[in-house]
């Protein structure tokens, strides 16, 4: 039992830290994904906005879903939500607490992606270069409407032959990047202030309910783990007994069919491990019986023999 | 048995994490394979599509099969599926659970390959460069070319060094267009896979949770039972071999004594276990004969009942040599009907 106690304590103290660890890993993975992703704006009038906004918003959805999938507690919460009440009432406050903690952790990686995207600026430049007012920029002011759209769409592509030496391109690019970075920093600031306030002001509201909800959500998590551990332990013992009975039943069958006198008190070295199976044919029969007629899943017969 | 218990507990508690580890390693291996692979578009009209789509679709299929091959549980599933019913009924739900969990793990590396290929863009660029809309993207003033010639020119888009169609359509424009499409497809594919995984994982507790717990328990049980049976058989084989070899040496020693017709020198009382372990073979010639006999004429797989325990294990004290072949064959015949 001491072993179990140690395992429980480990899980108790580390369940939160395991989830925080996964959260941090996903955030790092999101930064790594962004840096290794080869952003390549199409520089075509209709496609720019779709591409830019797509790169900004689709990976966060993917990261959010990944955050939910990788978090073990989301399964626990769903099971608790959907289980029949039975002999144990359901406490909605616990389920709400678990849901909010799961969602908070899952939101970290998407927010990191969006902030990194905005601070880098390429997405916004790609998406909104076609929506710029051409009259503000010298190089695009005196161009026909159709052509100006094409030219503006090519601003994100520095190496394009039309854009290579265009100074207005750099102006548009700088303008959009400035907006993008301002937006990125503002979002970061707002989120951090919100997190700070939430953590500081939480003790002012319903602290007792919160403590209860946290305790019981931990409890449900640990109970689930222990149940799985106990099932594993049980299936191992069950299998052990089942196989022992199989070998013993083989031994009995051999004794029944053989004419040799039962050897009382055999002290031969290693013979007691052999279950009386001392012959190639006997071993072959045992293996064949194991395949063709697996023993029933019933170890209660041991006591009746 | 305590040693086995510890080993089994390690395997059981870590079975899931072991399989997840293999899964992660295969996903990493698939990204590594892609970056190490030297993609070489043929830049010929009909070969491009075959090459590009082949690189996109054939390695995932290989990785999927590899995922099954590397999974130890595949043989367990096959065994459980094909075994005769006997005294134990078969539960199709357990088989379905085992197959689904194996298939899910095997799908990860192929999905990673397809995503990385699409997000990189080279494969789609190579496969669909001949389908680029020249009318909308190309230069308005391009020389009139026949369809076949246009196809030939467009096929060279992925190969910048030999591209000769700048008047028709700029290389960078076409490449950017194709790569944009490829990356959009890639992100959509990743989103679809993630959504499917999320739905599969989250809808399960809403339906059939009890059936799931049952299937999971019995699939673990089958796995553990198989491992325990193998371990028990290995233990048995060890004991069998030990007794068989001991009886071989005892038989040898008895034969030698009978052949030489002299009483063996009794070991002094205080030689103890060492003399016993020598089993009557105490010189080079005898040892060589024993080794030759082991090679030429291995003893049958049939242990005879042990001699009555003597003080120092020497069988050469007037006991008749026990020939291992004769007596128990009759008993073997009784149940060899299987």
UniProtKB/TrEMBL annotation, chain A:
One of its GO terms (biological process) is ATP export. The chain crosses the membrane at residues 49-70, 182-201. Keywords: Ion channel, Ion transport, Membrane, Transmembrane, Transmembrane helix, Transport. It is a multi-pass membrane protein. Its main location: membrane. InterPro entries: CALHM. It comes from the Eukaryota. GO terms for cellular component: plasma membrane. One of its GO terms (molecular function) is monoatomic cation channel activity. It is found in: Membrane. Belongs to the CALHM family. This is CAHM3 protein.
Automatic annotation (TrEMBL), chain B:
The keyword Glycosyltransferase does not apply. It comes from the Eukaryota. Keywords: Ion channel, Ion transport, Membrane, Transmembrane, Transmembrane helix, Transport. Residues 309-330 are annotated as: Disordered. One of its GO terms (biological process) is ATP export. It is found in: Membrane. The keyword Cell cycle does not apply. It is a multi-pass membrane protein. One of its GO terms (molecular function) is monoatomic cation channel activity. The chain crosses the membrane at residues 21-37, 49-72, 181-200. Belongs to the CALHM family. This is CAHM1 protein. The gene is Calhm1.
């Amino acid at each position: 039992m001491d072993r179990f106690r140690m395992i429980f304590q480990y899980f108790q103290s580390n369940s939160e830290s395991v989830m925080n660890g996964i959260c941090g890993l996903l955030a790092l993975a999101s930064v790594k994904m962004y840096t290794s992703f080869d952003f390549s704006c199409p520089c075509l009038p209709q496609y720019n906005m779709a591409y830019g906004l797509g790169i900004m918003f689709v990976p966060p959805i993917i990261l959010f879903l990944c955050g939910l999938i990788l978090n073990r507690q989301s399964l626990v919460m769903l099971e608790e939500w959907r289980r029949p009440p039975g002999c144990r009432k359901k406490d909605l406050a616990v389920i709400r607490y678990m849901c909010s903690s799961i969602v908070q952790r899952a939101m970290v990686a998407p927010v990191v992606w969006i902030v990194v995207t905005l601070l880098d600026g390429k997405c916004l430049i790609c998406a909104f270069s076609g929506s710029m007012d051409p009259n503000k920029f010298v190089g695009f002011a005196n161009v026909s409407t159709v052509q100006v759209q094409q030219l503006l769409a090519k601003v994100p592509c520095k190496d394009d032959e039309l854009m290579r030496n265009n100074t207005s391109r750099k102006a548009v690019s700088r303008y959009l990047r400035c907006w993008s970075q301002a937006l990125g920093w503002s979002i970061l600031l707002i989120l951090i202030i919100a997190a700070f306030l939430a953590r500081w002001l939480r003790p002012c509201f319903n602290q007792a309910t919160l403590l209860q909800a946290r305790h019981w959500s931990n409890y449900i998590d640990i109970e689930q783990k222990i149940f799985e551990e106990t099932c594993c332990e049980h299936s191992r013992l069950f299998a052990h007994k089942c196989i022992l009975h199989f070998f013993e039943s083989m031994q009995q069958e051999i004794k029944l069919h053989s004419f040799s006198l039962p050897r009382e008190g055999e002290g031969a070295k290693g013979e007691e491990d052999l279950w009386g199976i001392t012959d190639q044919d006997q071993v072959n029969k045992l293996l064949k019986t194991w395949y063709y007629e697996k023993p029933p899943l019933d170890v209660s017969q041991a006591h009746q023999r | 048995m305590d040693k086995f218990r510890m080993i089994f507990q390690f395997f059981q508690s870590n079975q899931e994490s072991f399989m997840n580890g293999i899964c992660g390693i295969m996903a990493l291996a698939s990204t590594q394979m892609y970056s190490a692979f030297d993609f070489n578009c043929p830049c010929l009209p009909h070969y491009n599509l075959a090459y590009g789509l082949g690189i996109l679709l054939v390695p995932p299929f290989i990785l999927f099969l590899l995922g099954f091959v590397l999974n130890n549980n595949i043989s367990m599933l096959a065994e459980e599926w094909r075994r005769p019913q006997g005294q134990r009924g078969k539960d199709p739900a357990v088989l379905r659970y085992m197959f689904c969990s194996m298939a899910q793990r095997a799908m990860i590396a192929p999905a990673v390959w397809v995503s990385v290929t699409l997000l990189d863009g080279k494969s789609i660029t190579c496969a669909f460069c001949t389908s680029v809309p020249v009318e909308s993207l190309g230069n308005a003033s391009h020389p009139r070319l026949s369809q076949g010639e246009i196809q030939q020119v467009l096929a060279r888009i992925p190969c910048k060094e030999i591209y000769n169609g700048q008047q028709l359509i700029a290389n960078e424009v076409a490449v950017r267009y194709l790569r944009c499409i490829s990356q959009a497809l890639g992100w959509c594919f990743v989103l679809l896979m993630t959504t499917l995984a999320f739905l599969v994982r989250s809808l399960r507790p809403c339906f059939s949770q009890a059936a799931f717990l049952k299937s999971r328990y019995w699939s673990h049980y089958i796995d553990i039972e198989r491992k325990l049976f193998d371990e028990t058989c290995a233990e048995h084989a060890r004991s069998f071999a030990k007794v068989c070899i001991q009886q071989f040496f005892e038989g040898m020693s008895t034969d030698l004594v009978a052949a030489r017709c002299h009483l063996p020198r009794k070991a002094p009382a205080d030689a103890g276990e060492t003399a016993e372990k020598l089993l009557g073979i105490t010189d080079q010639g005898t040892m060589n004969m024993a080794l030759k006999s082991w090679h030429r004429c291995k003893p049958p797989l049939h242990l005879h009942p042990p001699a009555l325990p003597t003080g120092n294990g020497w069988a050469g004290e007037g006991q008749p040599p026990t020939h291992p072949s004769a007596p128990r064959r009759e008993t073997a015949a009784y149940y060899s009907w299987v």
